[in-house]
Design goal:
223 residues; alpha+beta; 44% helix; rod-shaped
């Protein structure tokens, strides 16, 4: 809208010069009147352009608000049971005949998986693309609804735990990375901006990133 207003003002200014100069020559108005009118026309131009920009921002904001409201109105498929338990999870994991199929899929992503992982044990799950590795991780985080008696945490069905308990128990590094338009330090500290300096610097060090960050000219403050 703002460019259109500016074009209209430019056209009106040119027309004013043509008509106004003829009126001055013919003696219909004085030169002072002509100059004063042009001065007022120039003064009023910027406020009207600003109003056009405000209207443009409001229209964009309303469109964004509609999209946000659509997102906020979505109800999650995975919810806590009424009697969900808030318990600490220590790390014993068991899959019993786990079978899961995504919506609109003809074949299960994983079928009859049986696996036991003891507390403190480290394992690696390998397989071809699409074999169900990420699906296992997503089910373990309860990102999808799981049938009763298929996944157990510390000997208790995963459906008995609250989502809050499960999220507090697991750390997850996704395959798809995302960085905010900020410094490396701000991206690392995004989940807890009040971290003390001593605790903060343990994070990139644990990820074997600290030695790499020092090679940057500005360290962790690199945007």
């Amino acid at each position: 809208m703002s460019p259109a207003i500016e074009i209209c003002f430019s056209i009106s200014f040119v027309i004013n010069l043509m008509i106004g100069s003829n009126m001055v020559i013919n003696g219909a108005i004085t030169l002072g009147d002509f100059i004063a009118f042009n001065t007022y026309l120039t003064m009023i131009m910027q406020p009207i352009v600003s109003i056009g920009r405000v209207v443009n921002h409001l229209r964009r904001g309303m469109a964004s608000l509609e999209r946000l409201n659509e997102i906020f109105a979505i109800q999650p498929d995975v919810k806590d049971k009424e009697d969900a338990l808030n318990l600490d999870i220590h790390g014993e994991i068991t899959f019993k005949n786990l079978t899961f199929c995504y919506e609109d899929a003809d074949i299960p992503a994983v079928a009859e998986v049986n696996l036991s992982i003891e507390q403190g044990q480290t394992i690696g799950i390998i397989g071809r693309t699409g074999s169900g590795k990420s699906t296992l991780a997503n089910l373990l985080l309860h990102l999808y609804n799981v049938g009763s008696g298929e996944i157990f945490l510390d000997g208790r069905d995963i459906n008995d735990y609250s989502l809050h308990s499960i999220k507090n128990a697991f750390g997850y590094v996704a395959q798809d990375t995302f960085l905010f338009s900020a410094t490396i330090k701000e991206n690392i500290a995004f989940f807890g901006m009040t971290l003390r300096a001593t605790k903060f610097y343990r994070l990139p060090d644990a990820a074997i990133f600290m030695t790499v960050s020092w090679t940057f000219q500005t360290g962790l403050t690199l945007p």
